[in-house]
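Subject: design request, 78 residues
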């Protein structure tokens, strides 16, 4: 089963940008933002600011961030 990417526009670091993610990643991003008491744009801004130069796309960095958060939750439960 392949999930289709959904493009959304956000304002981060004072500029508008578009990010394409599959809906399950958008859903998790919203949950993490709510948990951290941030807007989705603020959380994406943090992810963007923390990226290493040449680390790849913002979309890819968001996916890795979400994966790492979920893996962190799993390791806390064991």
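Subject: RE: design request

Done. Sequence follows.
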């Amino acid at each position: 089963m392949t999930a289709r990417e959904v493009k959304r526009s956000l304002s981060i670091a004072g500029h508008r940008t578009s990010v394409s993610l599959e809906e399950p990643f958008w859903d998790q991003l919203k949950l993490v933002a709510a948990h951290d008491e941030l807007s989705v744009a603020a959380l994406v801004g943090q992810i963007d600011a923390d990226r290493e130069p040449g680390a790849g796309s913002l979309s890819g960095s968001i996916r890795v961030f979400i994966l790492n958060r979920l893996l962190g939750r799993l390791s806390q439960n064991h």
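The chain has one domain: 5-76.
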